# Entry
Amino acid sequence: MIKLLEKAASYGERKAIVSDGRSFSYHELLRSSGNVAAQLLSGQDDLKEERIAFLVPPSFEYTAVQWGIWAAGGIAVPLCVLHPLPSIKYVLEDTAARIVITHRDYEAFLRPLEEEIGIRLLLIDEIMKEASAVLPDIENTRRAMILYTSGTTSKPKGVVSTHANIESQISTLVDAWEWQKDDHILNILPLHHVHGIINVMSCALWTGACCEFLPEFDAGKVWEVISSGRLTLFMAVPTIYYKLIAFWEASGANEKHRMSEAASRLRLMVSGSAALPVPVLEKWREITGMTLLERYGMTEIGMGLSNSYRGERRPGHVGLPLPGVSIRLVDENNQPVKEGTAGEIQVKSACVFKEYWEKEEATRKAFTEDGWFITGDIAVLNEGSYKILGRDSVDIIKSGGYKISALEIEDVLRKHELIKDCAVVGIPEPEWGEIVAACIVTEENEIDFKQLSDWLKSYLPSYKVPRKYLINKELPRNVLGKVTKNTLKSRF
# Structure
């Protein structure tokens, strides 16, 4: 049996999830996921790693669907509720998923794909109806989930994790951050990313704790939940902490005191998915008395490095390798570097993913001959703690917790009839870490950037749409004809 579900069975009537104003026990979660599994099997013995996609908002239903897919022997493919139809279509075609489970809110949105690519839509209330089946025995070496990451290319790759990978990712964090069954956490993170799925939801449910969902971020509502006193942990990206600080600063003196008092009683607050600006860390500590714990991870590995739960947390640093994770820094010749010297991070661990979905060559290139995963991130070991220096590519933009491929945005921009050429870069910005900026080459004297942004939103999620634009007659290039993006950044 899948270990996460096996553990859940021992927690019985303990509160597992708070969603849409209701509380659900572990027993209710397992019963609902069993219904999903039986409906999906529909007389079959085993889904045998069939890819099952689902577009469901963060909720009890989301969790039941994910667990039901696993219990039936399928591979879960969570879709992003913020993505436009072309992005959804790409994932469905790449995974060859034939079934998409959807909430009624997204039924009309997805219907055009039924005929276009031959998918079958199953509505959430139908798939969760009472049903029974003999569930297959699932080995932990089986593929369990495919999450998509842009990486360094314009085409996103499907990151395949096995049940063993997921179990390792969860248990590593449970031990390092001392999760307990009486913990209660608020989940406000996207559930097509490791951060929300593994670090928050799965760690809570592994330990018999409670995961509370807030489908959409609202600073006032988050402070309301924190102020209730029921939370023991909180995890977010730097952009969210920035917004929470802004809300606190705009509040009255009594409200500030109430919010600060409540936040100071949490045992752990974590920041991740992007570098945490030191001024944000310091302001949060001033407001709450809490030093945010920074960690480092990615879709392919879960979490690899973390500041200490009980020891020193150094601003701007991500600590040391988590239990069971081996890290090395290497130079361009793949040779280990000395302490104090910058190098590329490479990882070995049971947490590391199995493969990129049906991309054998990309998978091979992602590992060294001796089995180390090549992250593409640069770091330095400085006085006993790792510091992330950035991505070994100017084509990756880290904004609000997302890793965004500049190449993907450029490909879309070039489809516009008025754009001859373009280049996309990330510009440093306190709230978002970086914001997306585009330099456009056009024969027009001016372009309506609002109209251009609206046009882009039909192809891209809103967080990938540029916030700043420039019009130039030509792009800066080196002698080989390659755009020199660092030169371009200075023009913004």
Summary: The chain has 16 helices and 25 strands. The longest strand covers residues 373-382.
